[in-house]
Amino acid sequence: MSRHRASGPMLAEPCIEATAAPPSGTVTELFGNTELERLRGMVLAFPRTAHRLLNERHAPDAVVRYTLRAEAALRLDSLREAMTLASAAVDHAMREEPVDPGRLLPAVTVLADAAVVAGAPDAVRSCMDLAGLASKFGDQHRLIVAAGLHAVAVFQQHSCREARHLLDQIGHTCTDGVIVTAISLACDTVTACCARRGQPHWPPPKLPVITAGGLVQPALTAPFLPDRFLRWPGVHDCSSTAG
Ligand SMILES: [Zn+2]
């Protein structure tokens, strides 16, 4: 189990065995001691390499392989591929008996995130599906991620004011400093988007930041929601002066 995941007691943990002895030297120091930790680190730092290496030999576990490949594809802005791979991960995880939320929820999170980044018509529903599953399994981290992504999807497809209201609700229910800061930054991003409404929209030139709530980064990060809010122009029903 990684140090990362051990820090979140309410996070659903996957039951994954290491599949190979850890190598020695700097690669281990950089990416961790287990095969899963090394693959996670590679997706984060070298998504193109990870995408190439994530085959059955390096990641024989189909749920892990499809989820990590989806995360790498999303990082590379290959959104249709990310959605296809994440759907495959969800299908494999759903067929397991019993269902392991620590394996299912990261896949469902990546699927919802890919739908949001792609601006897919069913993005709102995908986020609500994720929220329902996170609530059912008591995964507080992914419940927050789901609520944030839902706000982004609502911003994209329905209403900036409603999205702002959803963010405020998250902020009011959380006391964790990291989450409060992340939600505050998301609110600032919506406000800035509202101030620029009517102007041509340019998505961020950088590739999408790593999915929050996936296998690589299980919890919400500060840059995640601002990055997602900036991907699409949004539907503005705000006043002329603010969001
Ligand atoms: Zn607005």
Quickly list its features:
12 helices, 243 residues, binds zinc ion, single chain, mainly alpha, globular
How would you sum up this structure in a few lines?
The protein is 61% helix and 0% strand. The N and C termini lie far apart (42 Å). The longest helix is centred in the C-terminal third of the chain and has 19 residues.
What does this molecule look like?
61% of the residues lie in helices and 0% in strands. The termini are far apart. It contains 12 helices and no strands. Helix 7 (101-118) runs antiparallel to helix 8. Mean pLDDT is 87; it is low at 1-11 and 13-28. The protein has helices at residues 3-6, 26-31, 35-45, 47-53, 62-75, 79-95, 101-118, 123-136, 140-157, 160-173, 177-195, 224-229. By secondary structure, it is an all-alpha fold. It has a single domain, classed as Serine Threonine Protein Phosphatase 5, Tetratricopeptide repeat (Alpha Horseshoe). Bound molecules: zinc ion (ZN). Zinc ion (ZN) binds next to loops. The site of zinc ion has 6 residues, from loops.
